[in-house]
Each structure stands twice: as C-alpha cells, then as structure tokens.
Amino acid sequence: MAHTSKLAMRGVALFGASVMALGLGACSGGKSDSSSGASGGQVTVEMWDYLSGDTANSSIEASIAEFEKANPDIKVKRTTFAFADLSKSILQGSVGGEVPDVAVVDVVDNQNFASLGMLKDLSGDGINKSDFFDGPWSSVEFDGKTYGIPLNSNNLALYYNKTMLMEAGVEVPTDWASLKEAAKKTTKGDVKGLAISAVKNESGTFQLLPFVWQTGGDMSNYSESGATALAYLRGMIEDGSVSEAVVNYTQEDARTQFITGKAAMMINGPWELSTLNKDAEIEWDVAPLPKDKRAATSMGGENVVVMNGAKQSEAAVKLAKYLTSAEGAKIYCDGSGQLSSRPDLQGKLKLSSDPKLKVFEDQLQYAHARAYGKDYPKISEAIQLSMQEALTGASTPEAAAKKAAETINPLLPKN
C-alpha cells in the first residue's frame, strides 16, 4: 500500500508470554485472492500479508502472477489484513496450529517471530547474504540462522525548504555542526529550524536511533552514544531551533510543520514524497541525513518469511525466494514505489530516475535495522522513555541515557 512502510515503522508487536493469552480465533477481516483450490497435482500455498493498498496489492499480485506462470504446479492464495491485525493473527494462528505457509511481515517483527520458534530456518535454502544490503539482511538473522528474506526497505532523510535555507545564507547540512547552524539560522518568529518526531512510540525510536548510530555507537553503549545523541537534540531545543512540542509530534505532525512553512527542515521518510509533491506550495528538496562520526539512517520495510508449520513448505520456500529475487522484487518495487533491499537493483528501478527518491535508495547502504533480538519491544520502550525525559528537561541527557542503558544491556542478544 502507499503508506504500508510508514505504518510498519510505527508498530512493534508485543510477544513472549503474552502469546498464550491470545485467543484462538483468527482476525483476518481481509480478503483472499487467487484460487484456493488445487487440481491436476497443483498445490496451494497460503500467504498472509498487509499489502492491501491499491499499488501494493496490485504489485504483489503481479509478482505472484509471474511466479505462478513459471510454476504452474503451485497456486497462491492470499489473505490480506489490516497492518495492526497481521502479527496478532499470526500469533493466534500459531497457538491453534493454523498458520499460513508464507507471510510478509514488518522487519521489526521478524526476529520476535523467530525467537518464538514460529519461522522456518532458511539457512540451507540457497539464500545469499551478499544479495542484500547489510541493514535489511540483519533483520532476518537470529541466533546465527536465517529466518526470512528481505522484500523492500525504506529509511529516513532530511527534507529542506530551499527558499528558507537560501534566505538564511546556509548550505544544505551534511553533518551535525552544519545542521545545528542551519536550524539556528532558519529559526525566526514562529518558524523553527528543524521538525522531528520524538513521540513516545516506535516512530520516536525510529527517528532517534540514527543520531545514536551516527555517534559511532550502538545499543551496547547507549549510556554514552544515547547521551551524546540526546544532548545534541536537547541543545537544539534549548537554543529554540527545535520546538519543545516534538515530544508529541508524530511523523505526520513533522510533515505538517514543514509543509505549512513552520519548519525549515524535517526528518522523514519516502512515504511523504507523494503528499509533498501534491500539496506543498514551497520549494523543497531532500538530502541524506547529516552525519556525526559516521553516516547512518533507520531502516523500515517488509520481509518474506516461511512458517514452521507450513503445510506446503517446499513450495512456500520457492515462492519466498521468487518474491525477493531480482525479478520478483523489481516487479513489486516498480509497481508499489518501494525501495528494494537488493544492491543489484540499485539504480534500476523506476523510482531510481527520481532524484528525491534516489536519495533514499542511495542511503540503504547506511541503513540500520532495529535488529536487537526478541526483547526489542522492551528496548524500544527504554529508548522512548530516555528521549522523553531528556528532551523535556525532566532529566539530563546523561542521566536519561544511563537509566535506559541499565534496562537495555541485559536485554541485548548475547552473541
């Protein structure tokens, strides 16, 4: 769907002990496509996904049609769900022994499903790590094994008002120092220099983590890397170039501030391009996220997984491999406007000719997945709390990051 990836970045399913508390009834509320019958030796592969928007739906259907043409002994039956219902339905189905053969899932759910033993290990099925960018690939690995295949990706970049930057006499920022300078010089009256989403949910985590990674750090040293990132953002709030209200901003709110001329710059994803192309009455462009010690951005997107209880396991693996192959992924990404997770498709998609979209495509080499194991939801909650405490001034950035690290460190995978 046009905004599938935006939604994917917001949601993180809660797993673990809560699985047993779920009921056994399925929550599809979706629709099934393709024939469900099998004839003449034909097998039916059942596939669940949330690709229900017009472009995403037609694009995945086109890819499936090519697969079925090449594999006349396999028929694919799709059931689509609302984004928020898919992970819940998979969990409920696993309790009752009723799961699909294949599913298209949010990247942040992949490791959680794997940790619960719900996904087939694909390590021996001829899937090559080198065929994918490191960020997307890391989201399908768990305990040294492969439990999915990347389908498509997205990330965050810097949107900027060309007129405001020109009038302020500043260049497009490329690093933290120039971002801080540009934000300060474009702040005037009720116009802020930069808008971000620092809300207490997954969108906030998604937007903070690039700053953490750009320090050269990661979750393993969040007490230092988190403190540096939070202090940088808190400094821009204190000098007035970022609004204190960002702790309540969704990514849509950041877009509203930018598109109405109330923010000279914003950090957001490629899903906002169509809205800005249609509605923005300002001169704007997109640039890579400014870096500190290194370039980094957050990665969202979808993976294709094969369920451990697949009734048609061999055919399911064949479908998963085709959908994520150079051929299958190009069909889907060209039709849906998504970014491919494959380096061999870089510069070869329809979107590659759009200079604004190409910024996001080029950044995939620096994109990090939120691949922190089965306890990621708890890790994300700790990050969100530190962000709220530091950016509101309720705590110093150092104290907020240290407190969060005490929660995060025991939850990180040991390997």
Description:
- It is built from 16 helices and 14 strands.
- It has 415 residues and is of the alpha/beta class.
- A hairpin with a 2-residue loop joins strand 5 (141-142) and strand 6.
- The radius of gyration is 21 Å and the shape is globular.
- The model is unreliable at 1-38 (pLDDT under 50).
- Helix 9 packs parallel to helix 15.
Q: What is the terminal separation in angstroms?
A: 36 Å
The tally of beta strands, per DSSP, is: 14
**Which segments are poorly predicted (pLDDT under 50) over 5 or more consecutive residues?**
1-38
Structural class: alpha/beta
What sort of overall outline do the alpha carbons produce when their principal axes are compared? globular
Q: With helices defined by DSSP (H or I, 4 residues minimum), what is the helix count?
A: 16
Mean pLDDT score, rounded? 90
- Computed over alpha carbons, the radius of gyration is 21 Å
Helix-strand pattern: HEEHEHEHHEEEEHHEHHHEHEEHHEHEHH
Care to give the gist of this entry?
The chain is α/β, with parallel strands linked by helices and 415 residues long.
Give the SSE map:
Blueprint: H1 4-10, E1 32-33, E2 43-49, H2 54-70, E3 74-80, H3 83-96, E4 102-106, H4 107-115, H5 134-138, E5 141-142, E6 145-146, E7 149-155, E8 157-161, H6 162-168, H7 176-186, E9 192-195, H8 202-214, H9 222-238, H10 251-259, E10 263-268, H11 273-279, E11 284-287, E12 297-306, H12 313-323, H13 326-336, E13 339-340, H14 355-363, E14 367-368, H15 376-392, H16 397-408
Parallel strand pairs: 2-3, 2-4, 9-10, 12-14
Antiparallel strand pairs: 1-3, 4-12, 5-6, 7-12, 7-13, 8-10, 8-11
